[in-house]
Specification:
The chain is α+β, with helices and mostly antiparallel strands. The chain folds into two domains: 32 residues, no CATH class; 80 residues, no CATH class. It is built from three helices and two strands; from the N terminus they run H-H-H-E-E. Strands 1-2 form a two-stranded antiparallel sheet. It is globular and about 50 Å long.
Length: 138
């Protein structure tokens, strides 16, 4: 019998962090930012967001396909903080949101990879996740 190959998706990504590191990051955010943000906006703002794996995979597949059509071989995703205008927010408060923005440049163009990759305004960003009310602590 030959050597078994690992199933695709079973290998842990290199950039995973421990649960303890995640808790430390969340704690630092809550201690250094949320009091001022909540004081400024006048309510407990959200600070965690949820999409299903299926939704994220669907969007990533869309970005890959559209990027390939544009000649972009190694697209990326930049994650932005945003806030809904108060009058467009279901609860009339203007909660924080996150949106995902595709990045990448066609082969040979400047800034083609990493954090310097330009935003790809030819592909729509992704939004409308869910969040806890009150926010869920990690």
């Amino acid at each position: 019998m030959g050597k078994k190959l690992p199933k695709k998706g079973n290998k842990k990504p290199k950039k995973c962090i421990t649960q303890e590191e995640a808790k430390e990051l969340q704690h630092a955010w809550c201690c250094t930012r949320t009091p001022e943000i909540d004081k400024c906006v006048g309510f407990e703002d959200t600070r965690e967001f949820h999409w299903s794996v299926e939704e994220l995979q669907e969007y990533l597949k869309y970005v890959k396909k559209q990027s390939k059509k544009q000649g972009i071989d190694n697209p990326g995703i930049r994650i932005y903080l945003g806030a809904y205008p108060k009058e467009k927010c279901k609860m009339n408060k203007g909660y924080t949101t996150l949106f995902l923005a595709p990045t990448g440049a066609p082969a040979g163009e400047v800034g083609k990879g990493g954090g310097s990759a330009p935003n790809n305004y030819g592909i729509e960003p992704f939004n409308y996740g869910n969040s806890g009310n009150p926010p869920k602590i990690y």
